[in-house]
Every structure is written in C-alpha cells, then in structure tokens.
C-alpha cells in the first residue's frame, strides 16, 4: 500500500527538502504492465512537499531536459526519478546526462 513520506523522512543531513520534483517514467510498455503509472502520479502529487509529479514517456531521454527546466522554474530542493531498473537504461541515461 502506498504511504506518503513525512517531512521528517524527507530530511537529509539536517536539510528539509520542502519542494520536491518527482518525475515518473512511463517507459513505453514496461512499467504500465507492472503498476498504474497515472494513479502513482496522482497520489505522489498529493504529498505535501511535492511541487510537481509529471509522467514522461522516457525519463532517460528528453526527460532529463524537462527535469532540469522544472528544477530551475519551480525552485526544487530535490528530485526523485521513479523509473525502471538502471540495468535496463543505464547506458542511454548516462549518455544523455553528459
């Protein structure tokens, strides 16, 4: 069952992240077969400290540019990327992040 994180759980090294961006990868056909991506985005978006929780088709590709823009535009304190295993997309993600 989904349980929202508390502000205490979002505190890292004494710094409380008050504006989080949670970027959810749709990943074509992989993730929607495993879980309801839209429902996850809706529930995460209701968490108090989450400023944005968009769904992207492929976070490892053009999603990185969207993450950078949203981080600046919304003044995010932290970023969470919800995606498939790094084993699947590690190489494309690293190529895009350079």
Characterise this structure.
The protein is α/β, with parallel strands linked by helices. It has one domain. It has four helices and six strands, in the order E-E-E-H-H-E-E-H-E-H. The strands form two sheets. Strands 3, 4, 5 and 6 form a four-stranded parallel sheet that branches. A two-stranded antiparallel sheet has the order 1-2. A hairpin with a 2-residue loop joins strand 1 (11-12) and strand 2 (15-16). The protein is globular and about 30 Å long. The chain starts with 10 loop residues before the first strand and ends with a helix. The mean pLDDT is 76.
Please outline the helices and strands.
Elements: E1 11-12, E2 15-16, E3 20-25, H1 30-34, H2 37-45, E4 50-52, E5 55-56, H3 63-74, E6 78-82, H4 86-96
Parallel strand pairs: 3-4, 3-5, 3-6
Antiparallel strand pairs: 1-2
The succession of helices and strands, N to C, reads EEEHHEEHEH
Are there runs of 5+ residues with pLDDT below 50, and where?
Answer: none
Portion of residues in helices? 25-40%
Largest sheet: 4 strands, parallel
The radius of gyration is 14 Å
Strand content: 15-25%
Distance between the termini: 36 Å
Overall residue-averaged pLDDT value? 76
What is the domain tally? 1
Let me know the number of strands. 6
How would you describe the shape?
globular
Structural class, please?
alpha/beta
Determine the number of helices (DSSP H or I, runs of at least 4 residues): 4
